[in-house]
Amino acid sequence: MTARVPAPRTGWRRRAAVVVSGLTLWFGTVGCGSDEPAVETNGVEDLAPEDIEERARTAAADAATVRLSGTVVAEGSSYRLDMRIGPDGGVGEVSAEGTTFELLRVGEQMYVKADAAFWETEGIPEELESDPTQKLDGKYVLVAPDDPAYAELSGFTEKNALLEALLVLEGERTTGDRSEVDGVATIQLNAAEGAGGTMDVSLEGTPYPLRLHRGGDAGDLRLTDWDQDFSLHAPPEEEIVDYGDAMLPDESD
Questions:
Q1: Tens digits of per-residue pLDDT, 3-22?
Q2: Of 67, 76, 99, 183, which one's alpha carbon is 20 to 30 angstroms from that of 18?
Q3: Each residue of 210-240: pLDDT tens digit?
Q4: This protein's superkingdom (predicted)?
């Protein structure tokens, strides 16, 4: 049987909400220029900047899976994420304010996993027995779909919604230099001469966006493993802690 325990305080959920809101701010990409042209390209470098962006956005939307990793700076705080996302959910880590937690969504089931130090920071209910953090240390906490935390956290695991937010540049588009990301030749797409963000688009094969740099040096993100399969499995029953709907905030608070 999956363990059911009293609800924790909602501090960790508020922190997750801050991370989500920071993440859904806009990103872009940057890279050092290269004077060496690719021997063979997909031809997008010859398109108008707006068409390059359209090709990249279409390729991203059509891909079944992607891995997003990097940093986001928002409102003076820095966040790091490393998530693999697909049609059935996602898995990975999010770090913020000195803490790290793992997210796993398999279909409609959402789990949060963290160590005892994380739960000590966020607060543990007095109803739990002595040394209660050990009950949650390394466990997968099941988040109920009707808990507000579910909508906040699922933003990290929904590919199309997340990419729609990420793949936005602000300002007039211009074609930049050729560059390279992890050995793949790219063409840079600048917005407002780079002040509104820069996107590296692959010149090899499908024109996926491979790197994003947010305007104002407010974060960098890499997008890799496009359309590559990965496995998603629910945790073993003995590793799950289920709060049911008790995680919902108290209306009297």
A1: 444 444 455 555 555 555 55
A2: 67
A3: 999 988 787 899 999 999 999 999 999 999 9
A4: Bacteria
Cβ distance 211 to 222 under 8 Å? yes
The CATH number for 183's domain is 2.50.20.20
Go through 118-140 and write b for each residue having 16 or more CB atoms within 10 A of its CB, e for each that does not. Answer: bbebbebeeebeeebbeebbebb
d(CA 218, CA 164): 18
Q: How many residues does the chain have?
A: 253
62 HSE (CA, 13 A, CB side) = 10
Neighbours of 244 (CB within 10 A): 14
Report which DSSP code applies to 88.
T
Residue 226 lies in a domain: yes
CB atoms within 10 A of CB 38: 16
Residue-number span of the structural domain to which 135 is assigned:
3-242
When pLDDT is averaged across residues 131-149 and rounded to a whole number, the result is: 78
